[in-house]
Amino acid sequence: MIKTRLTQLLGIEIPVMQGGLQWLARAELASAVSNAGGLGTINAMSFATPGELREEIKRLKDMTDKPFAVNVSMLPVMTVGEMYDKYFDVIVEEGVKIVETAGRNPEPYVPRLKEAGVKIIHKVPAVRYAKKAESVGVDAVTIVGFECGGHPGMDDVTSLILAQKARKVLNIPFFIGGGFADGRGLIAALALGADGIVMGTRFVATKECPVHENFKKWMLEAQETDTMIVERSIKNPARVRKNKAAFEVLAMEEKGATLEELMPLIAGKVGLQAYLSGDLDIGVIACGQVVGLIDDIPSAYDLVRRIESEAREVLQHLQKRVM
Questions:
Q1: Which CATH superfamily includes the segment(s) 5-207?
Q2: Contacting residues for 128 by C-beta, under 8 A, at least 6 apart
Q3: Residue 196, CB-side half-sphere exposure with 13 Å CA sphere
Q4: Whole-prediction pTM value?
Q5: What is each CA distance from 171 to 65, 101, 144, 320, in whole angstroms?
């Protein structure tokens, strides 16, 4: 067991959180991470209705008795109707004890979640947003750096800087994300001041993740230079796999394309089609620079346990080097 403020707050053994991974973060993956001692996560926005989310939570509870989280990414433009209240209703009614919010300010939901005994983690791409989240009463934050897959924010600040800055100004514990894949990374994050790490891309390359095998095979061969940033023009930067669709999006942005014109290539359901079909060029696919560190496809359970073992080995090595 590695003790940090987050392991104590959340009741987990290893300060490793699995990222929200829309479409991919389902009960099989989340339970494997939680059963290994980390914090598994399912993504509420992967489910078209609150009823479907309820069934997935029940499946997850049948597969683990360890803590897990439900991610609710509150998009600036809600594409499935104003159903956030209903998703949070399900979370409370099903007795979920940890929620990760993202996107919009979670303040309207904090009182109800707190009353239900839910620990709230809010995900942000900058320390100033973390401070704001702390001020509205969340219990912890996830801060993601420029290296991360998905949405790293507009500032282009790496996790190396964010972790150290956050430790100076935050009073609540925090996960740091972007560039982490192993025990060495976990120890580095803790040394920089974080209380744990969040990994998205690394957990895609696991046996329990339902992404098509074509994508997993690509990850084994990919380098850290095989990702790129798109969607800056709409103030929603996304780090994605370099592919035909990503370069097309970039070209359209350079010509002043609107959000509506970009949607056929960047919409979440297009990404889902790519994940499941094995066609890696039909849409933008979130992927972090850490893909360059991935060289195997273990089970998620084994990955988490290996990270703990590696972390202990790194600590022992460092202790021998410190006079």
A1: Aldolase class I (3.20.20.70)
A2: none
A3: 33
A4: 0.95
A5: 30, 19, 18, 32
